[in-house]
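Practice problem 4.
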């Protein structure tokens, strides 16, 4: 307790001075400038007063620490501690920011530095440093006037995680800087010193998330990332509170989550008992409630069943050997000591007849001794594993929602820490001998025959029920048959992609339903018109089409359209089953009488061209928004080229076919001219050249040859237009160029690429990202298809900071008309319009 001052009347003026000084000391600030001192009775508060930084003392402790905690939560909840291993024994210490941008905690009496953010000699070039506490809970040191959203401040607390992972924090490792961001528990609830447990991303082999005790012993393994979640946490799914992501590239690997609603308080904590817990603040109960925890049962214990053993919490006993394996020590196994694990029933001898059996719904084994390649296919992965006798199993690194995937990870030696889930686990391909594979195949056939016999009687009963139901639903069937006949007629008239056995599974809606939604196709509801026909939006939020009541867009085939039936079938077949956040969603169709319509989700911000090529609207898209749009388009194309059910070539990628939703997220649309490939097919030839001048690749416009690389060319043109804000067609910078590509190529060769940037970008421009985007676009528009990168490489190049290869001369490049002799394809017209052409004669 501070001593009370005795104030006398004659000292009233000094008293007022003291009172004023006390009030000033209690005022919280949101920044600290160089040489400014923060004492025990002062705090730094984030702008919206979400977090507070200052000195605190745990409830049952006499020690003091510098930390960050929630300001508005009654029970003090500390999320970060600076001097966790060097406590203060009194309240005389001060926190100071030096002119070199170093935060120092020291005893002002002795001058001893207790804790600091780093060596001041590494930051001597800093000018006017300030410390700032953000609303995210991140305390950063940066130069005064700097952007609070910059990725690399001088120093930030988010790089030095204690026991809490907040939204926006990166848990993982930066390969460039060497910074590792791992969670470590407190020693006790009253002592924030380094505890006995750590939760971290293990990068030895394919990265995985481990919970370790002091000394490195693994207690729990969340497993590697499979493209959707950590394989050991099957309940880790999209939810209403937060989104999550996992990034792995040449620069860094990290896990991160973001809150959907900033008013929600949520944190991931590694408690003193070694349990990771995601906690959610309950305003009604005024307490932290457990949202979830990855450790739920005995099967979460690391390697409980030993090598080749699988733990299933629903079995008794929990541990079982995988099929094709037997207990290594039967006596120990009977005594429920499973640590020795299992071995192959038939020993492997590395013969060419050995193969792989797929095991489903598993938690993938420990990847410490694994190897991976993110670009390989599953077929290539199997070949690589089979060619190495030490390779025991393989699977893909990036799983899609349909269960298939891409990338490759190989295991060597025993497979440890496997568990079986009831559903939604991962697939693993394990090496077995030829005789064991044959035995498994015979067993599968016998089981299949037994199942057929068991199914005959129920099937017969079902058939009788169906036959009886036909009479009751005759009228309905008649209408359905009429609709199917209409689809059949359309199918016979068009659709390059139609294979004869496509199952569209697309909802059919009645004409009356569409009339009600569009107010009988009112002109007030008309959004525009293309080669297919007019497009209308629903007049109101229409519950009959979408369960969540979103607006819809109806694309109606015009009676005078030149591209109707063929494009309709192409669109339906191409995207009826595709699901990706950067593809426009086809909700259904209406085929009734003479009407043919497609029903899409409504995009309130229309096409990207309405922003980029409009002088007023373009100012609404700063560089951050444009770069996010470029990345979204690239990811949508990657899904079409590699991860979708069929490989899809769009063939008409342009700005007007990129729609923007409410949050300005890009969605690729208009698949009427698309082609689908099956298997490993990557290119084809056509006599029916379709697309838009200015976006078509040379080999396609001239000879009808198209592939994923022709879409890459269109993407390159599109990126140049987004960066520059000018159209490729009809571009007139000076007399030497007749398109944007030629101008960009010339500026690149002269080292002046930055001049391409749209002038309206102003201060939002990120020079590094702009130059990288232009460089990548020039790689995409190279004359020869084999020189262009795949969309996988495009995304990696856009997201990294490493060196890029030099581009070769682009296709349709037109240089100095007086001196340049480069031939130009006659298919490259000079028209300023961007109408899609349905048919050209391929040469």
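Answer key:
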């Amino acid at each position: 307790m501070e001593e009370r001052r005795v104030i006398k009347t004659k000292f009233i003026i000094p008293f007022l001075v003291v009172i004023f000084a006390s009030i000033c000391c209690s005022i919280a600030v949101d920044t600290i400038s160089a040489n400014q001192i923060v004492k025990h009775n002062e705090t730094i508060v984030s702008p919206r007063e979400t977090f507070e930084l200052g000195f605190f003392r745990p409830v049952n402790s006499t020690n003091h620490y510098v930390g960050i905690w929630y300001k508005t939560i009654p029970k003090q909840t500390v999320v970060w501690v600076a001097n966790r291993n060097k406590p203060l024994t009194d309240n005389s210490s001060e926190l100071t920011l030096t002119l070199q941008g170093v935060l120092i905690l020291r005893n002002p009496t002795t001058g001893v530095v207790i804790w600091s953010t780093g060596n001041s000699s590494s930051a001597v070039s800093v000018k006017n440093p300030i410390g700032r506490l953000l609303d995210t809970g991140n305390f950063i040191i940066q130069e005064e006037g700097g952007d609070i959203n910059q990725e690399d401040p001088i120093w930030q607390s988010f790089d030095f995680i204690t026991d809490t992972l907040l939204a926006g924090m990166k848990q993982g490792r930066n390969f460039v800087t060497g910074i590792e961001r791992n969670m470590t528990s407190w020693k006790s609830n009253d002592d924030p010193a380094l505890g006995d447990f750590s939760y971290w991303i293990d990068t030895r082999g394919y990265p995985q998330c481990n919970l370790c005790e002091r000394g490195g012993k693994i207690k729990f393994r969340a497993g590697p990332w499979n493209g959707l979640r950590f394989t050991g946490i099957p309940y880790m799914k999209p939810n209403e509170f937060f989104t999550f992501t996992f990034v792995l590239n040449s620069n860094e690997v990290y896990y991160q989550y973001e809150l959907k609603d900033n008013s929600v308080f949520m944190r991931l904590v590694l408690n003193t008992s070694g349990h990771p817990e995601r906690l959610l603040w309950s305003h009604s109960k005024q307490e932290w409630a457990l949202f979830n925890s990855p450790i739920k049962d005995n099967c979460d214990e690391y390697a409980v069943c030993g090598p080749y053993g699988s733990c299933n919490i629903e079995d008794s006993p929990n541990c079982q050997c995988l099929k094709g394996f037997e207990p290594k020590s039967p006596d120990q196994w009977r005594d429920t000591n499973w640590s020795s694990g299992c071995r192959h029933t038939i020993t492997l001898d590395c013969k060419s007849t050995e193969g792989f059996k797929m095991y489903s719904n598993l938690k993938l084994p420990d990847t410490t001794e694994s190897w991976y390649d993110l670009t390989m296919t599953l077929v290539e992965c199997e070949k690589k594993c089979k060619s190495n006798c030490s390779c025991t199993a393989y699977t893909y690194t990036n799983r899609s929602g349909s269960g298939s995937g891409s990338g490759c990870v190989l295991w060597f030696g025993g497979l440890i820490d496997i568990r079986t889930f009831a559903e939604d686990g991962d697939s693993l391909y394990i090496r077995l001998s030829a005789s064991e594979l044959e035995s498994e195949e015979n067993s599968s056939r016998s089981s299949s025959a037994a199942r057929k016999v068991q199914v005959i009687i129920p099937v017969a009963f079902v058939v009788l029920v169906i036959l009886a139901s036909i009479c009751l639903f005759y009228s309905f069937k008649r209408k359905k048959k009429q609709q199917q006949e209409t689809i059949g007629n359309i199918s016979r008239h068009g659709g390059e992609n139609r294979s004869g056995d496509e199952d569209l599974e697309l909802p059919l809606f009645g004409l009356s339903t569409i009339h009600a939604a569009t107010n009988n196709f009112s002109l007030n509801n008309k959004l525009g018109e293309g080669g297919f026909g007019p497009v209308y939006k629903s007049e109101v939020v229409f519950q009959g089409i979408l369960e969540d009541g979103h607006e819809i867009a109806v694309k109606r085939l015009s009676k005078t359209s030149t591209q109707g039936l063929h494009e309709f079938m192409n669109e339906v077949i191409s995207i009826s089953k595709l699901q990706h956040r950067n593809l426009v969603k086809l909700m259904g169709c209406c085929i009734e009488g003479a009407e043919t319509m497609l029903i899409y989700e409504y995009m309130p911000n229309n096409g990207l061209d309405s922003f980029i090529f409009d002088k007023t609207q373009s100012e609404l898209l700063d560089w951050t928004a444009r770069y996010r749009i470029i990345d979204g388009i690239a990811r949508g194309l990657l899904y079409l080229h590699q991860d979708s059910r069929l490989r899809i070539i769009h063939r008409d990628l342009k700005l007007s076919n990129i729609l923007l939703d409410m949050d300005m997220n890009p969605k690729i649309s208009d698949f009427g001219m698309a082609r689908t490939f099956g298997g490993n097919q990557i290119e084809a030839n056509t006599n029916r050249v379709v697309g838009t001048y200015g976006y078509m690749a040379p080999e396609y416009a001239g000879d009808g040859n198209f592939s994923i690389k022709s879409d890459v060319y269109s993407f390159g043109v599109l990126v140049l237009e987004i960066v520059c804000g000018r159209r490729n067609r009809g571009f007139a910078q000076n007399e030497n160029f007749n398109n944007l590509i030629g101008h960009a190529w010339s500026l690149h060769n002269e080292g002046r690429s930055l001049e391409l940037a749209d002038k309206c970008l102003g201060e939002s421009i990120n020079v590094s990202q702009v130059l990288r985007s232009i460089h990548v676009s020039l790689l995409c528009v190279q004359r020869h298809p084999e020189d262009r990168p795949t969309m996988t490489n495009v995304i990696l190049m856009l997201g990294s900071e490493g060196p890029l290869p030099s581009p070769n001369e682009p296709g349709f490049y037109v240089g100095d008309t007086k001196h340049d002799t480069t031939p130009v394809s006659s298919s490259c017209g000079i028209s300023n319009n961007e109408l899609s052409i349905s048919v050209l004669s391929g040469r």
